[in-house]
Every structure is written in C-alpha cells, then in structure tokens.
Amino acid sequence: MSKFRAACIQMRSCDDVAANIRDAEKLIRAAAKDGAHFIATPENTTLMAPDGGAKLAHSFDETHDPALPVFSDLARELGVWLLAGSLAIRVSETKTANRSFLFSPEGQITARYSKIHLFDVNLPSGEKYRESNTVAGGDEAVVASTPWGGIGLSICYDIRFPHLYRDMAKKGAFAFTAPSAFTETTGKAHWHVLLRARAIENGAFIIAPAQGGLHANGRRTFGHSLIISPWGDVLVEGGTEPGIFAAEIDPQLSVEARAKVPSLEHDRSFIFP
Questions:
Q1: I need a labelling partner for 144 at 20 to 30 A (CA). Which of 65, 82, 102, 104 fits?
Q2: Are 228 and 206 in contact (CB under 8 A)?
Q3: Residue of 43, 55, 131, 184 marked active site
C-alpha cells in the first residue's frame, strides 16, 4: 500500500511507427528521470493511421512488433512499471487488436488487454468511425497485479461502459488505466465527466494518458491527459501538447473513499416487473 508516482505520457502520434517509438522513448525516459514509478502511454502509441486499412498495412503480429522489445528494454533499464497504452497488433489478415501491454521492471509482459468496446459512430461534425471494420474486439477484462495492488486495464471507448469498471473494482482494482485518443468533439463534451464518474463510483484512481492536438493525417484528438483521485479530484491535467503529467498515487485513499461511500458493498441484484 506504499505511495508511488504515476506519469501519463501525452503524444501526437503519426503514421510513422519508428518515429512514434522514438518519441515515446524520449518521453518515457524523461518521466523516469522525474521520478515516476508507473508510466503509461496513450492509445495508438506507435501508429495513428488515417484509416483502418492503413493501420492494418502498418501493423505487426505480437512476435514481430518493433515496439515491444523497445518498451521491454526501457522498463528493465529504468526499473519502472510501463504500460504501453495500446498498439495495433495484427491478429488476422483483415483485423488488428487494440491492445495494452503492461511491463514489469524486469522487462516482462505481466498483463495484456485487448479493447472490448469498439467505436462505431457517425458524429454530428461529419466524422465517421468504424473501428469494428478492422479491429477485433477483446472479450476478457484484466486486473493486473502490481506491488501497489490491482490495476484494471481499459482503453478509450471502454470508459462509457461503467459495468466494466465496477466488475474490475470488485476483482480488487484500486486504480484503472484508460489510455485514449478521444476525438476533439466528444472530448470537449464528455472526457472529464466520464473519467471522474468512473473514479467516484468505484472509489478508484484513474490514470488516463491521451493523444492530443492536430495529427499529420488531419485528425484532431482532445488531449487533456488526466490522473484522478478516488474522490473525483483531478490531480493533474494536460493540455493538447505532448508532454508528461505526473502525480503521487496513495492506494490508501482508495480504501478510505470506499469506506466513506461503500457502494461496492451495497450493489443488489434486481428484476423488472
């Protein structure tokens, strides 16, 4: 239950995998130098492609993905827990998985999570997204074991599905990660309130590194990486520029929040008449 320093890496990834890996490495090293023990990168860390077809064309299966050995070596060299927020991992000829990887300070992958909920939507702005056309949704929730306790893994659109976080909290998660690439439109409307709600209703920390700004392919993402306390307080917030946003995490605050509002213990099953 010791305290630790968590850092969100905010990026503006492009469609150049090698360049994105270099950018992520630079920021991860800086976060570790600043004293972070747990470092998380955003969704689409190594590839922000203009469309699903381009993402598929530039993706790799897990065995051959060039980012994984780099992140493994970084975690081991720096002695940190490192969450690669999400990589596009080729799982078939037509689809990738949107997958998080958690590395231990020994450089081992200790947890994998493939995004369960896929973003298929037509926005009022005219933007259209069909993630399911080229992404295979996951079907397993993951609570990773760390020296500080269980951390529940999620990605972006997942934050609109509160039952996922409720179930992870009941499985022992005192914190959730939510690496994201929220659109500017939905980010302005919902990003803060959704993440604060997930924190408050479960008495859990939220660590949410984000993509931000105008990307080379013309897409705008909202940025505003957040770390939120179990009481719903914003401990640190980014803007739209790439950078590092860190805060102290005290797992005891989750215990205290759940004692003040023991809603996890008060859940009841019910039926409709």
A1: 65
A2: yes
A3: 43
- Considering the candidates 8, 115, 131, 184, report the single residue annotated as catalytic: 115
- The alpha carbon of 26 is separated from its chain's Cα centroid by a whole number of angstroms, namely 19
Catalytic (active site) residue 26: no
Considering the domain boundaries, does residue 27 fall inside one? yes
**Is 241 noted as a catalytic residue in this protein?**
no
Could you tell me the residue range of the domain that residue 136 belongs to? 4-261
Out of 8, 95, 131, 156, pick the active-site residue. 156
> Could you report the per-residue pLDDT of 5-46, keeping only the tens digit for each?
999 999 999 999 999 999 999 999 999 999 999 999 999 999
In a domain, 236, yes or no: yes
Give the pair of three-digit tokens for residue 182.
């929220």
Q: What is the CATH number of the domain that holds 94?
A: 3.60.110.10
Nearest to 43 by CA among 243, 181, 207, 190: 181
Q: 130: pLDDT confidence band, cut at 50, 70 and 90?
A: confident
**Tally of domains in the chain:** 1
Contact 154, 165 (CB under 8 A): yes
- How confident is the model at residue 127, as a pLDDT? 76
Helix (H) or strand (E) holding 77: helix 67-78
257 domain-assigned: yes
Q: What is the pTM of this model?
A: 0.96
